Amino acid sequence: MAGFVEVKGVTDGRGARALGGVAPEAVAGDVHSAGVRIELARGQWIDEKFNACFIGNAGTGKTHLAVALGQAACRQNKRVRFYTAATLVNTLEEAQKQYRLERVLTALERVDLLVVDELGYLSFSRSGAELLFQVFADRYVRGSILITSNLPFGAWGQVFQGERMTAALLDRFTHRCHIFEMKGESFRFGGIK
Known about the structure:
The chain is of the alpha/beta class and 193 residues long. It has helices at 13-18, 34-42, 44-47, 62-75, 85-97, 101-109, 126-138, 157-160, 163-175, and strands at 19-22, 51-56, 80-84, 113-119, 144-149, 177-182.
């Protein structure tokens, strides 16, 4: 199903406790309640071609919630693709080497929601960063992107290897974006003392 590894729910586990602060244009309501997650799962933000971004430390529920929202969109017959950032960049670079880049970019343009997980965990080559920028820029007001990242926006220059490209990307991406800071301790290390 759209590249997802396992089934997740928006009202269970990690995503249920993790949501922190909300950007002004984000869904109204208590971000610690299931209401915000359920509202996001309804998918109106995807219909309106908004983006979403979950930023926070490892283990705070970013991937869990991104998968759950992607799967909810699939159940609404929306076209969804899920990639880790590294896998997407590798796919784009390989397609470019095999002269299939246009075909891959066209396929990505057709999806309603592109989920890019773990942006910032691994670095990319300059050409990989440029290809990822191209995908994000091409989707501006044409399709939704959901990104999970361990890096605050100010550190995205590490990923895109340049302040100008990063500034242009963030200007487009955050223009119509629900931004959530995922707070708390790692769910995986929570029981370890």
